[in-house]
Predict the structure.
Amino acid sequence: YISTIGSKNYITDKSLFIENNINLDFFEFNQSKYFQLGSGFIEKLSIIDILFNLGKDSLEYLRKNIKIINA
């Protein structure tokens, strides 16, 4: 199971994951600027914005900007 790094604050009991043989990891997204239509760069938009603006390069962008953190 992969959850956002912020959920680390409330997923404190990991026993259910362990008992059910589920790996628990977190991810941290470090956004870097990418091409957006229009003027300027608007941060923290949805994945839809990345997909529409980067197209086939979206996956590479995400791989470069997402860090998996083991629980």
Notes: Strands lie at 2-4, 25-29, 66-70.
